[in-house]
Amino acid sequence: MKVWDVLRLGISYVILAVSAVIAVFPIYYIVITSLSDIPTIASISVNSLIPQPRGLSLEAYKGILFENPFFLWLRNSLILAGSTVAVTILLAFLSGVALSRLNVPGKRALMVTVYVLTFFPMTVTVLPLYLMFATLHLINTYYGLILAYSSGTSIYGAYLVKLFVDSIPREYEEAAMIDGLSRFGAFMRILLPLSKPVLAFLGLLAFMGAYTDYAMANVFITSSNMWTLTLGMWYLSFINRSTLYNVFAAFAVLMGIPIMAVFLAFQRYLTRMYTMSGVKG
Where are the transmembrane segments (predicted)? Predict the structure, then answer.
């Protein structure tokens, strides 16, 4: 191995190590802060920003889990996020396949419209959605929030699925149809399995968007029985009237566990998508 190759390999390892430290440090900071008491956190000075694992305690976790309706908030968040994922994947896949494979009237204009809509954040739709849902009596219901979340994510998802399906050769479906499958059967048995990577990526985005949302939940939810985790965190900050960093850090750790579980469940499909995105031709 040449000297330049060794040097380049060493530099690559150094860059990876530094990147890993930068990525892991916030997680370490949050976890240690969640296990520390207020005096320990207050003792951290500007010259020692890295918290030391001393005087560890589970009091913050006990307060969140047993003195507040945390599991009710978690249930509401998971119902909304899981339903949003299901609706988003269904609408995005059907719409994306139709835009890619079917001769839809006004297809070009529709694609331009979908592309333009992806630039608008979901928050700009809060007021019109609220007025519409109030008329339909969907305020303070799961259905209203699921429709609000999935409508925004499905637009981006349809465009993403369309681009992904365009990269799949049509010969696969034609061969399946020659073997006796209908067009719909070819879509479901050929395109759907091949589209799992992009659907997994879209599902992760939909889950995180609904699970971590505060703006829409704060507008559309009026009953405490419907509160999500983000509203629960706001509630804790409101009633305490103080800066309890350990409580907020513990809440963030608990809230991040389902996100990590979903990411690990979709990891192999996400890895496949990243691999496919780097292959040309």
Answer: 12-31, 78-100, 112-136, 142-165, 186-208, 214-236, 243-266
- State the pTM of this model: 0.83
Mean pLDDT, rounded, for 247-252: 88
Given CA atoms 169, 171, 173, 176 in this order, what sign does their dihedral have? negative
- Whether the CB-CB separation of 170 and 52 falls below 8 Å is answered with no
Would you call 242 helix, strand, or coil by DSSP?
A: coil
Question: Do residues 44 and 51 make contact, with C-beta atoms less than 8 angstroms apart?
Answer: yes
> Which tens digits make up the pLDDT trace of 7-25?
888 888 999 999 998 988 8
Assigned token pair, 170: 């049509």
Write out pLDDT tens, residues 198-246.
899 899 999 999 999 998 899 899 888 999 999 998 888 776 655 678 8
d(CA 33, CA 127): 38
- The residue written with tokens 């951290």 in the block is 44
Residue 7 C-beta-side C-alpha neighbours within 13 Å: 3
The tokens of 277 are what?
Answer: 């995105």
**DSSP character at residue 46:** T
